[in-house]
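ARCHIVE CARD
CATEGORY: sequence design from structure
SOURCE FIELD: tokenized fold
FIELD CONTENT:
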């Protein structure tokens, strides 16, 4: 009877130790999961903040590069005035061919001439 009692008490303590180890391991994994979740939520908040900042900077950039803004800045800050536009007519010259190409000699040129083609 004594050996049976010792065997059952050893099994009980072994089961209790194993249970404690499993519970401690699960607690550790839960703690790690909570830390990872916290880091993930911080990253998501950072992404949202940077996205909002990017949107704001794009709006500022589009305002700075608009033609009306550039024109008013040049006129008010730099004292520039728009030049009067004038239409300039440039006469077109027709270039005349001054040199007449000399016909080539040889069997290739005569063959092209037979078909009415020019080698130049």
């Amino acid at each position: 009877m004594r050996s049976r009692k010792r065997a059952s008490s050893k099994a009980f303590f072994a089961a209790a130790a194993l249970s404690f180890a499993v519970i401690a391991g699960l607690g550790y994994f839960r703690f790690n999961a909570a830390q990872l979740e916290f880091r993930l939520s911080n990253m998501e908040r950072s992404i949202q903040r940077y996205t909002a900042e990017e949107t704001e900077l794009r709006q500022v950039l589009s305002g700075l590069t608009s033609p009306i803004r550039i024109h008013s800045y040049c006129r008010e800050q730099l004292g520039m005035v728009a030049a009067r536009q004038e239409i300039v007519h440039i006469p077109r010259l027709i270039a005349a061919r001054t040199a007449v190409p000399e016909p080539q000699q040889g069997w290739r040129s005569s063959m092209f001439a037979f078909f009415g083609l020019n080698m130049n």
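CARD ANNOTATION: The first helix runs from residue 2 to 64. Residues 2-89 form one domain.
SHELF: design records, drawer C
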